[in-house]
Amino acid sequence: MPRRRRTRIAEAEKFVLKDEFGQDRAALEMGNNGPVFCLLTDQGHPRLTLDVGDYGPSIKFTEPHTETMIELCAPHTGFEVSWAYRHRGVRAKVKVEMSPDGVTFYDGQHRVLCRVEGTRFEPPAYLRDRE
Fold this sequence. Notes:
Layout: E1 14-18, E2 24-31, E3 34-40, E4 46-53, E5 56-63, E6 68-73, E7 79-87, E8 90-99, E9 102-106, E10 112-117, E11 127-129
Antiparallel strand pairs: 1-2, 2-3, 3-4, 4-5, 5-6, 6-7, 7-8, 8-9, 9-10, 10-11
């Protein structure tokens, strides 16, 4: 008769993966709005983050030396892509929201740069510059 495997369960509020030098390299924990998984650089800076936020799941790629960040979000209203860059005094930030109503481009202060209206099944009706 084959032996039955015991189910092993480990429970914690946070799991941390360390490298051979004792540095944190990854973490799985409960954030304010659900689970968060983060991969870290050898200096402990976030490099890749998977999150279940207020508005839906997101994935964030970060380059800590240039403070470059790309974030993909899937809120219940559509899809968002954000990009931010800051290095040696140069700053740039752009956000694009895609929804059934169209596509909106924002600047770093969340001001509308332009909007392409239409549904994902129709061609855009028109392009409107700065609202």
